[in-house]
Specification:
With 431 residues, the chain is α+β, with helices and mostly antiparallel strands. 42% of the residues are buried. Helices cover 43% and strands 18% of the residues.
Length: 431
């Protein structure tokens, strides 16, 4: 195992966790080597709660929170932040609405007051609502002409069917068109609550002081209209291969995405699958896939793999940018490479390189307050344990070549892949 000093990493003895009476979990990690402070966190609301005719509502609502409140107008919110050299923002995913900000430690109360004001008292001013909706719709129109976005969206729609993971968080042009200002207000009143909220503070402030400040500013928040979100459903499984091409006239490049289901973030398979993914399509010049499709065959502008993992499952994807004439040949080579990966496994050298890459990268990922906050949030959200980072080398080193092959066999099947391409019309392709 590589000799690295892990004592500086966040762990059980450096992460302070407090649950406030109103349900907010406060996580604090002290770092007096930096004059700044970072806050990051999430609420238990997201796009899984969007009505079918108004997909995009959760994300739209999160973007509108800072457009004005009972206490401050849009211009005042942003001028207060800018004058302090601070930043803050919201966003939404399938199951959570996230927030994050950064400031000098003496302006932590500014960040927390901004968070509190926007969470409790947004008014979604009509003028700002119209502006935001126009921007939203313009972005969705642009997405319709983006080959990579279209391929990715169709891949998710087919792999996950009607499951929330298969529906884009930003919705569709037609569904966002249906969203009204009252929809934002209603969604906020019914789904925003301190219940299950998590906030992490990292920087040059004592944990007790930071926790007390959160309690002072957010401890009185309650929402009697809040409705507990339903459990996210199981993912419907498809076992037959699917091949779809989305013709987008006027394009010269085809974006290809193909893959299978992947493990959830909490699955025991996740770390092994992550190592396998690194070898297959990330390490060096994008692993075996990059070598086979781009370097050796010269068929792709880019080629790589990715592992996307959420609470209920995920996807294991291979993507490539191709000339239209190279699409079918590239698909064939990728299938052959995946088949070889599954049936023959990985070499001792490949696994050693992947392990060294993962273990060596980890300390770099938590060098900043942002990195520490992100790591702590993941440990809390996925219940990984606060010593997860310190135990990471042992977790990684324990995997054998057989473990990697076993997890690849479990999730990757070149004969049952969902294969989506988007770009210029292709002769003989289904659509």
């Amino acid at each position: 195992m590589m000799e690295i000093n892990w004592k500086h990493l966040p762990g059980e003895d450096t992460i302070n966790r407090t649950v406030l009476p109103n349900g907010i979990t406060v996580l604090c990690s002290e770092n007096f080597n930096s004059p700044s402070v970072v806050i990051s966190g999430y609420l238990q609301t997201g796009s899984q709660l969007d009505p079918p005719n108004k997909y995009g509502l959760a994300l739209f609502t999160s973007y509108g929170l800072m457009n004005g409140t009972i206490n401050r107008r849009f211009q005042r919110i942003y001028s207060d932040l800018e004058s302090a050299g601070a930043s803050f923002g919201f966003g939404a995913s399938v199951q959570t609405t996230g927030f994050g900000g950064r400031a000098l430690v003496e302006d932590l109360d500014l960040l927390l007051n901004t968070l509190s004001d926007c969470l409790q008292w947004p008014v979604f001013p009509p003028r700002q609502f119209r502006r935001l909706k126009a921007q939203f719709l313009t972005g969705l129109q642009m997405r319709q002409q983006d080959t990579a976005d279209q391929a990715s969206m169709k891949f998710d729609e087919i792999l996950f069917k009607d499951h929330p993971y298969g529906i884009p968080e930003d919705g569709y042009f037609e569904t966002v068109l249906n969203i009204t200002r009252n929809d934002l207000s209603r969604f906020h009143k019914q789904t925003y609550s301190p219940h299950g909220m998590v906030i992490c503070i990292v920087g040059a402030i004592h944990a007790a002081q930071a926790t007390e400040l959160v309690y002072k500013i957010l401890g009185g928040w309650k929402n009697p209209e809040y409705v507990n979100p339903p459990e996210i459903p199981s993912i419907p499984v498809i076992t037959e291969p699917v091949r779809v091409h989305l013709p987008i006239p006027g394009k010269v490049q085809v974006d290809l995405i193909m893959g299978n289901y992947g493990p959830s973030r909490t699955s025991e398979d996740f770390l092994a699958a992550s190592l396998a993914n690194n070898i297959l399509g990330q390490f060096g010049m994008m692993g075996r896939i990059g070598s086979a499709v781009r370097e050796k065959s010269g068929l792709a502008y880019h080629a790589s793999t990715s592992l996307n993992a959420w609470t209920q499952g995920g996807s294991w994807e291979i993507s490539a940018g191709l000339h239209p004439n190279n699409v079918e040949k590239a698909i064939s080579i990728i299938k052959q490479e995946v088949s070889s990966f599954v049936n023959s496994g990985v070499t001792e050298e490949e696994l050693a390189d992947a392990k060294a890459n993962y273990i060596g990268w980890l300390p770099l990922s938590v060098e900043s307050n942002n990195g520490v906050a992100s790591a702590i949030i993941k440990m809390e959200r996925f219940q990984l344990g606060f010593n997860y980072l310190r135990e990471y080398p042992q977790r990684i080193e324990r995997f054998s070549q057989q473990d990697i092959q076993q997890v690849a066999k479990k999730y990757l099947d070149p004969e049952s892949m969902v294969i989506i391409s988007a770009g210029p019309p292709l002769t003989g392709e289904s659509s």
